[in-house]
Protein 1
Amino acid sequence: MEVCSSLGKSAKMKGSAEVTLCKLKCWAFLVGRIQNVLSLFCAVLTENKILFHSASYQRLSDACRALESLIYPLKYSYPYIPILPAQLLEVLSSPTPFIIGVHSLFCNDIHELLDVIIADLDGGTIKIPECIHLSQLPEPLLYQTQTALSLVLHPDLETADYAFPPPRSALSHSKMLDKEVRAVFLRLFAQLFQGYRSCLQLIRIHSEPVINFHKAAFLGQRGLIENDFLTKVLHGMAFAGFVSDRGPPYRSCDLFDELVAFEIERIKSEESHSSKMLKHIRELAEQLFKNENPNPHMAFQKVPRPTEGSHLRVHVLPFPRINEAQVQDLIQEGLAKNHSIPPATRVERKCVVPAGPPVVSIVEKSSTVFNSAQRLEVVRNCISSIFENKILETEKTLPAALRALKGKAARLCLTQELSLHVQQNRAILDHQQFDYIIRMMNCTLQGSSIFLAVN
């Protein structure tokens, strides 16, 4: 499994993303199923501890680098150690999140860890401890990402049951498969953060911009107030760095900015058309590839690889001894040339960052049931159970009633029902009954504050 190293994370150009030459397809094969890939992706975004172990040091460094590159445009802000030395195994007991790789020789030591997600690169499995609740991507983004990864990594799966399969499209080159996997997750982030610029609050410009992100408004507009995954992402250090780097309205733009501003409608229209989705993924992969190869040209090895059996030839002359003084002179000559030539840098062209379309709910309006009669009936039944002191029935219906109170109609229903019960019966509530009412009123006030912030 050969995986190239990174050329640098800071190099960016207009219409492109950061430079990473990791072969993500190889990493996806190492961790096994697509679900394992998504689990590790969600784990790193929700700031969990992730530990890779393998008998190969190369696989460890490749896997850690691949996972870090998947979260672009976010940047990992916690300890990142692709190969942990044996003398530093105590670092695994750190209270902070991390991405660390260890050799399989230390399996007996790492399996005692209770709050670490362990990925076996040789066996293709991951172990999630019972004490960790791993938040997943919200639907329908989870299903769409699984479908897109399946199209890229398992292209024959879609037509495997056809009696007469259609003509196979040209398979992607191994180098392009890596970029296609990255393109899938870049599309995912564009959908997840769509409209984020409308929730930015510029507090100060001089001397350095201070920007705040209105998390409650963004979650409310996206319809994901109760979603653990996005809530954890927005409160993480990676997203704080994202706001700091991408919040300013005038800066250099890249491929992610273009996706969020101009391609959201196209991505939505491709949800039910796998061929169009794959075409867009390959277009993004081409742009990622061009970013890593801005000046494509034929590369030849300076030292040709010897042919098979060349070492058995009798006439091969022994390799001459190296002249140390001559080698040192060549090194000094090269260093002198490098000092005299200015370093090659990419010119960053700054522009006004396009705002893109406004924030919309990730859930279709037809599927929202906040204002349905069934939800309102749940609220009424819960209030009746509280006033009648039916504790068991209250415990059953309270969670559903609290979820229903995220809707405006349900909050109005609560005030009406409380008013009716006060008028009909001036009952004295005990502490437990009063606590239930307070919890429902708190939920109602929180929903109302978010609604006002959004509008």
Protein 2
Amino acid sequence: MKKMLTWVGLLLIAGVLSACGTEKAAEKNEELTVVASFYPMYDFTKNIVGEEGTVELLVPAGTDSHDFEPSARDINKIQEADAFVYNDENMEMWVSDVADSLKQENVTMIKATKDLLLLPASDEHEHDHGEEGHHHELDPHVWLAPSLAMKEVEAIRDQLSEVYPEHAAIFSKNAQSYLEKLAALDQQYTEALSQAKQKSFVTQHAAFSYLALEYGLNQVPISGVSAEEEPSPARLAELKHFVETNGIEYIYFEQNAKSTVADTLADEANIKTAILNPLEGLTEKQMKAGEDYLSIMENNLKELRKTTDTENPNEKNLTPEKEKSVYNGYFKDEEVQKRPLSDWAGQWQSVYPYLQDGTFDQVMSYKAKKDPSKTVEEYKQYYETGYQTDVQEIEIKGSTITFVFEDGTEKSAEYQATGYEILKYSAGNRGVRFLFEAKEDTGAFKYIQFSDHGIHPAKSGHFHLYYGNHSQAELLKEMGHWPTYYPKKLSGKTIAQEMLAH
């Protein structure tokens, strides 16, 4: 509540500042003015806009963009601009608080991640902001992979061009020139890291998940280590054991570690420190020296190669193992409980059309990068077989299930629970199917089975449905075909984003 009142106050002050200034319409009749939230957005936008307008940086040089909260003057600065470019609400978490006021001032909001799906955030990504701490639900650090930075540049270019068509040709030309430089940077990363002698790197700030995924690396974040403060004797002992067990030579910080910290880590734990710059805010010195996204990312690659160009016989210890959770199919028989049909009550839609129309293409791409045992096309074919169905929608109300087919016909029946079956899979994990049977013959499926990674009563967020008319035993043999349903109210992109979270 206190934070909400603070924002209301800031917006009121910003409104007064705006009223005290020159009429915005008069200011806009000359050149285009764009405000960009933090450094990568500023550099990307500046390379697109060029001489067609002025691009201003909102977050001051040297300021951690995670900790930034705009003042009334900052909000007024955005309100006076033609357009505001930002990365994503999971980075600039204050954007949703000012969106309405910017809309009222006719400020065009440009979201760089507009067409991208985001990875789930790690537990390490928590930042305190005043009395109310918050965390990123999704990982916003897309720009740290050059291949994805290119997609952000394209998104900014396209959105600016749509709103300002009179500048579109120049935007396109400028962007193309910059994209060629980013493509060359991407090629440098690809060539260097595809030959990595070890793929795991240890970082104090878990900002490099996209970089790791795009270039086949494994980011290993560790907590309790700061570039500013010496670790406690207990933490030093833990770090010493960690590096000796796992063959670690470098720990990457986001800034230069103080000499005392570096010396302590070197002397007591035999750890070298290096820098991976997350580009969340350049210093004034860096900006005056002409450093930019390209130069810093080139240096990041140079620093990464201190690790990736060196073999590590203990690297296998750092390979992440699949969590043995209930969701992933690890549980005890006695933990399983019967479930009522109400667990799946609601209106549901098949995800099959989204696989067909390309909405899930990014999901398939992420899967192929995370587990290269299949190509993107092979993953698509796997899910084509799994998702295929002519049951487009399902409504579950009380004991009645209504199936809506792709030709528009509907079939309904009342169902009763007949228990559950625990299945063992070839991978070593298990699953539970909850069985239901139609009370009478109405033309709807006689037998159905729900599977949603749950093992006891709880409201389902999505489910796989097995259905047929022969027998429950026959359905239990089905392993390759599992039509999947999500709430009808969700968009295809929202469902795709949910899939990445699992």
Protein 3
Amino acid sequence: MLSLSSRLRLHLILLSFVTLQCLTVTTATCHMDDEAGLLAFKSAITADPSGKLNSWKPGTDCCKWFGISCDGNNHRVTTLTLVGQPDQSNTSLSGTISPSLSKLHYLGGIYLQDLQNLSGPFPNLLFSLPNIEYVYIENSKLSGQIPANIGDLTRLFALSFADNRFSGPIPSSISNLTQLGQLKFGGNLLTGTVPAGIQQLKKLTLLSLDRNQLTGTVPDIFSTLTELRSLSLSHNKFSGKIPSTISALAPKLIYLKLGHNYFTGQIPNFLGSFHALDTLDLSWNRFSGTVPKSFGNLTKIFNLDLSHNFLVDPFPEMNVKGIESLDLSYNGFHLSEIPKWVTSSTIIYSLKVARCGIKIKLDDWKPAETYFYDYIDLSDNEISGSPVGLLNRTNYLVGFQASGNRIRFDMESVKFPNTLKDLDLSRNLVFGKLPKAISGLEKLNVSNNHLCGPIPANKFSASAFSGNDCLCGSPLSPCKA
């Protein structure tokens, strides 16, 4: 028979074991509301090819589920993060966003990005989340209108529904979201005008309304948005002149994208005072006149696109330390040569100067660096000579367009980089035979040259090869025996 002291020790050991078990059960189970809300979300998902939600199982700690973060003190779910890959369908999620997520009262952030196939209307459950601060539901198929009372989400620091299918206007109540640092509605089907009340969002660092169907003039709302680093209004139907209050963004703005609209008038001189500007896109508008001399002050500009406007000479001398991408194509420029500040750049990867009045011999053009080039467009100029030396020194070239020049070389002397997908040498003086490497291209046009011989196996139409001296074989007439 055990002594009293032995029985007491055994009792304490058993008590400790039971207590430990209780603690283990307590810490291993998340809050029942959080678990129920998340399992309802999973139930509304009809396809999960990559198994993102495989760890979401009843009775297990939801704080350890994939994509879930919890508060360390109260063990409540604070963040839901499920991210796919934009170009990989096997990382998507299909289904709807369950309204039961409203059970997650401590949820502060929802990040459902690049999942591609989430559908349904605006998730009104957001209005039932008292602690929600960050919403990024991007690149899916949500549709319908953005609710008029979206301004009730006053705790939000960031709101993004980029790349969905929302339609209708941007609600005027958006002006109530005065804590917002980021507002991203790009890539939808939104119509109407930009609400003037956006000027109340004084903490914005990023405003993206690009790739919609917005119309009218852009209101003068920017004098209060001096924290903006990125402004994108491209690919809409805006008209009129660039608002003068954009000049207030000069000290801090890094990205300004206004391309693919119907803006008119001259490019404002004040844009030359944007000393922090990295990227400026004014392409595919109706700007006229000259480019301001003040552009010479844009010493930090890396990406400049002024293509497809009605701009004329003279083009200002730029004082950039190194340009990465430049597109001046299809204006009224007569540059005669590729600018020295372009030729000297050691970081350039994209050069597009189609129909810019360039009159050089390609053999004489000696860019400081060709290694990084992935796109070169020299179309519709008066360029002669051979591009062989240039092309044979590019390692990552994806596209080379030089149609409508006087380029003369033997086609067989070119070493095609493995990355090349798009080649247009039409309307030149190219001769010789076509190399087998053309079979791997996605786009090809060598029409109206002096090429001869059998055409290698290909997937292109006859128009890609027409107008040559003696090419034969599919898709042209068969070669003679």
